[in-house]
Amino acid sequence: MQSALIGTIAVPGDKSISHRSIMFGAISNGETVINNFLESADCLTTMNAFRQLGVKIETVDNQVHVHGKGIDHLVAPSEPLNMGNSGTTTRLISGILASRPFETTLVGDASLSKRPMQRIIEPLTQMGAHFQSTDGHLPLTITGGQLTGIDYHMPIASAQVKSAIILAALSANQPTTIVEDTKSRDHTEAMLAQFSPQSITVHGNQIIIQPHHPLVGQTINVPGDISSAAFFLVAAAIIPESNITITNVGINPTRTGILSVLKRAGANINLTNQSQTGELSADISITATPLKPFTITAAEIPGLVDEVPLLALLAARANGISRITGAQELRLKESDRIKAITTEFKKLGIAIEELPDGFVIDGREPWHVVDPHLDSYHDHRIAMTLKIAALLVKTPVTINDEECINISYPTFNTDLAKLRS
Ligand SMILES: O=C(O)C1=C[C@@H](OP(=O)(O)O)[C@@H](O)[C@H](O)C1
Ligand SMILES: C=C(OP(=O)(O)O)C(=O)O
Q1: Exposed, middle or buried, 191 (CB in 10 Å: 0-12/13-18/19+)?
Q2: Which of 69, 132, 320, 391 sits CB 3.0–4.6 Å from 141 for a disulfide?
Q3: Ligand 2 site: residues with CB under 6 angstroms?
Q4: Which residue, by CA, sits nearest to atom 8 of ligand 2?
Q5: Does residue 309 share a domain with residue 196?
Q6: 263 near 269, Cβ under 8 Å?
Q7: What is the pLDDT of residues 320-355, one digit of tens each?
Q8: What domain range includes position 228?
Q9: What family does the entry list (predicted)?
Q10: pTM above 0.95, yes or no
Q11: Beta carbons within 10 angstroms of residue 213's beta carbon
C-alpha cells in the first residue's frame, strides 16, 4: 500500500493550448513564440503536420518558434498527414484545411481510425468543403474550397468540433455564428481573441466569427495541464495523509470541473498565486480527507470530460454510492472509457456498475484484487488512472502498454516518483 504523497511539483504544459498555439502560429503573420509547449506525442503530431504544410517550426532553448506567413501560404503536403492518436489534431486541422485550395489526406492509428469524424464533416461540408471518408472515419480526404459562413447550433458539446468551425470560419465569405447548449473548453476563442481581436465576439454561449481580419504572431505562455495535474490531485485526495502542491496549473473555468467535484466530495483544496501571463493559472494544494459520495450529471461533463476515469476512482474511495451520468462521449475517446474503467476496476474488486452513459460506484466496498493483469486499452488516460489505482492495492499488478502515457504526459512516472515519500 502506498505511503502518503508529499511535495511540490509542476506538471507539463496544457495539451489543448499547445496544439492551438502551433495552429494559430502557423496561420498567422509573423513569429509566434511558445513557452512551456507540451512535448508529448499528440502535440508533436500537430507540429509535424504543420511542417509538412510548409511552416517553419523550430525549438530553441525550450521555446518553440513558429514562423507563420498566413493561412494562404500553407502548401499541399507531399504525402498523407499522419494524425497518430490525436483527435484534437485531426478535427482542428480539418477546419484549417477546409478552405485550402488543395487536397489533403489524413490517416491515423487504429484507435483514431475508429473515432467519429462525421461531427466535423457535417458542418464543414455545409460551409463548402469536400470530404471523402469510409463511413465518417479516417482515412479522410479533404478538398478545400471557397467557404460560406453558417449559423450552427452545436448538436453535441465538443470543443474540437466548435474549434474546427471557428478555424474554417476565418476564411469564409460572411460571418459565422455558433451556439452551444453547454459551454465546452474555450481555448480556441481565447487564443483567437489574442491573435486577432476583431475576428471574434462571444456573448455567453454564442460565438460570432468575422472572417478575413489579419492574425498576428504572439507569445504564448502555456500553463500546466489541469488534466495532467488531476492524476495527482485525485491520488492525494485518496491516499491518507497526503499533502501536495502543483504549481502553475491552468484554471480556465471551462476546465475546472474536477476541482468542483473534489470540493463536493469534501477534499481540502486551496488555490494560491493566481496569475495571468496567458490563460489564468494558480498553484493548487490538496490534503487527504475522508471523502463523501457525489453525483455528476450531463451539464457538468464538458468541464471535466477527460477526468471522468479519475473521478470514478475518487468515487471508489468515497464513503457511499456515487453516480456519474451523461458521459456517453467517453465511449468515443481513445478507447471506450466507460467499458475500460468498468472492466479494469472490477479486476481490482471495486463495486462498479456500468451504465450506458456512466457508472454507479459504491466506495464502501473493500477492494480485493481478482485479476492482477490490467489493460490500458492503449489509452493514456486509462493507463495513468490505473497506475494511481494500483498505488492503493497490496498485490502487485501489471498494466499493458504503459508507454501510451507518452500521448499526453511523457514525464508522468518521474513526476509521480517526486511525490512518493
Ligand atoms: O479541444 C480539445 O483540445 C479537446 C476537447 C475534448 O474533446 P471533445 O471536443 O471531443 O469533447 C477533450 O476530450 C480532448 O482531450 C481535448
Ligand atoms: C480525448 C483526448 O484527446 P484527443 O481527442 O485529442 O485524442 C484526451 O486527451 O483524453
Answers
A1: buried
A2: 132
A3: 42, 86-88, 306, 333-334, 381, 408
A4: 306
A5: no
A6: yes
A7: 999 999 999 999 999 999 999 999 999 999 999 999
A8: 223-419
A9: Belongs to the EPSP synthase family.
A10: yes
A11: 15
